[in-house]
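Troubleshooting: if your tokenizer reports a length mismatch, compare your output against this known-good record of 247 residues.
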Amino acid sequence: MITGRGKRLGKFEPMSQDEKKIAAARAALAYVEDGMKLGIGTGSTAEAFIQLLAEKVGAGFKVTGVPTSERTARLCVELGVPLATLDELPRLDLAIDGADEIDPQLNLTKGGGGALLREKIVAYSSKMFIVIADESKLVPALGAFPLPIEVNPFGLEATRQDIVDAYTALGHSGDVRLRVRDGQPFETDGAHFILDASFGHISDPKALSDALHAIPGVVEHGMFIGMTSIAIVAGGDGIRTLEAPQK
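Known-good structure output:
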């Protein structure tokens, strides 16, 4: 369960989904301090954050970002946000990113945009990981959003069948489909493919994570388990800040 009570910061008039993303991004910006080494996420909510961050940088705020995708890197360069690589800055102060699902323990499903591997590496390399989202991303359990699984193209069908066997052994069922864009397999920034697994409900994320990691062809999956420090969620009645359970 969530140990920290949801803190409601202010009241809002009814907002569109885009306005909720901007509100969550603005609230997250308050955690960014001058001089920080910052992991910068991928996706529409992260892009709202980048826009706001760029305004502060333009006003003299000092920060160095490590992008989680080539798309994010291009936007940061375009808007004037200074960047470095994770090799240059292997330990980060903070990472801020969006999510496709957030469960009550602040476990996440990520990877709808295809950047899950780099997102997870950057989040793991950060002292603090903040996820920003609108309230539609809150779920009672992970699994309604298809789980992205990044895989090596070599032996693709063997890996797909191994994934089916793994989740069947755990009592799950559902389709595992290759992500396709413009008639071709979607390719990640790391030159991998993505299999999207539709489970409907993941009863034990840790057990499924362990089973997927045991498959040689699986590079990484989109469940972020026990990694989130804070979730900033924008809803119709304002902003809630949800704190991760104490370990």
